[in-house]
Automatic annotation (TrEMBL):
Organism from which the protein derives: Megasphaera paucivorans
Keyword hit for Iron-sulfur: no
Region span, Disordered: 265-324
Low complexity bias locations: 270-302
Keywords: Membrane, Transmembrane, Transmembrane helix
Boundaries of every SAF domain copy: 58-120
InterPro entries linked to this entry: Pilus_assmbl_Flp-typ_CpaB, RcpC_dom, SAF
Entry keyword annotation includes Membrane: yes
Protein name, entry field: Pilus assembly protein CpaB
Bilayer-spanning residue ranges: 21-41
Length: 324
């Protein structure tokens, strides 16, 4: 009864309350009602599952940048992220060290998960050679190798300056090949820098090489150009000319170069035989055709009697022909 009496007296108490207190009371009641409704709805809508499994995550290796096909993978090309275990394939790579040093079998896009099918480790360096091409090595130094600024993946032109003694006191050069892909510089290929102990040692040795010491570059050429390059290597010194990243032309016409050295003169015994100069001969004299001249005075010029005769002139000879 007391509770009912209080409920009946509630309107009278509300009537004497100030508007500010009424607003505050209404706000408190709305919050209480909203909380009750939220608890009730979440209890009905959320299914209760006994033994629910919390999703598990694990590390996987993904590409930090786009990796072209046939490119040897380095540490800076990769990174690790956490993904739900349910979406990870069985052959996914989980540590960066398992992928470094291997070549990309296909083009790997940025943020793609690295898997065993996308890598090839058995081919090694041969996996970087383009199809239908051959890899050959030529020696270089700081002068012939563009001061060591070339790196794997660059394209160069190859020139030859002859050291043949037949061109003494003269310089002869020619263009051997254009637009040639550099596969490796010394023992580093695809711009790998210190991915393992062997590569780190090779790079350290390269930095400690004295200036002018011969290095090596390995290039990709057509099978028909292998002997051409090796033959030019025996004839003279090969020079590299580094091409720009975006050349306006792939190939240009470059004529052979031949220049005599100023102030040089070969020894007589080493001079190349030259064709003897034919002395100028006087032209043969022109003789007009044989002419016949008739002596009109009746004198034949013969001593054996009278009669008429003609004087025949043939070139420089003159003869008398008797006419009956």
């Amino acid at each position: 009864m007391k509770l009912l009496d209080k409920f009946k007296a509630l309107p009278e108490k509300l009537a004497v309350m100030s508007p500010r207190k009424l607003v505050f009371l209404a706000f408190i009641l709305s919050v209480i009602v909203a909380s009750i409704i939220y608890i009730i709805l979440t209890g009905f809508l959320t299914p209760r599952q006994e033994g629910a499994v919390v999703p598990q995550y694990q590390n996987v290796v993904v590409a930090a940048v786009d990796i072209p096909e046939r490119t040897r993978i380095t540490k800076d090309m990769l990174k690790t992220i956490n993904v739900p275990k349910d979406v990870v394939s069985q052959d996914a790579v989980h540590t960066i060290g398992d992928a470094v040093g291997k070549a990309a079998a296909v083009r790997i896009m940025k943020e793609d998960i690295i898997t065993g099918q996308k890598l090839t480790g058995g081919n090694g360096f041969s996996g970087t050679i383009p199809d239908n091409m051959r890899a050959i090595t030529i020696p270089i130094n700081d002068l012939t190798g563009v001061a060591g600024l070339v790196k794997p993946g660059d394209y160069v032109d190859i020139f030859m300056i002859s050291t043949n003694k037949a061109y003494k006191n003269a310089v002869y050069g020619k263009l051997i090949l254009q637009n040639v892909l550099l596969l490796a510089v010394n023992t580093s290929f695809n711009n790998v820098q210190g991915t393992d102990a062997k590569d780190a040692k090779d790079n350290k040795d390269k930095q400690q090489q004295p200036a002018g010491k011969l290095g090596m570059v390995t290039i990709a050429v057509q099978p028909s150009d292998v002997m051409r390059v090796q033959g030019a290597l025996q004839e003279g010194i090969l020079y590299l000319a580094l091409r720009p990243d975006l050349p306006s032309e792939s190939y240009t016409v470059v004529p052979d170069y031949f220049q005599y050295m100023a102030g040089g003169q070969e020894e007589p015994k080493q001079q190349q035989p030259s064709q003897p100069v034919q002395p100028a001969t006087a032209p043969m004299p022109y003789y007009p055709p044989a002419q016949a001249q008739v002596i009109s005075n009746g004198s034949s010029g013969y001593s054996d009697g009278g009669g008429r005769g003609i004087e025949v002139i043939r070139g420089n000879s003159v003869s008398q022909v008797r006419v009956q």
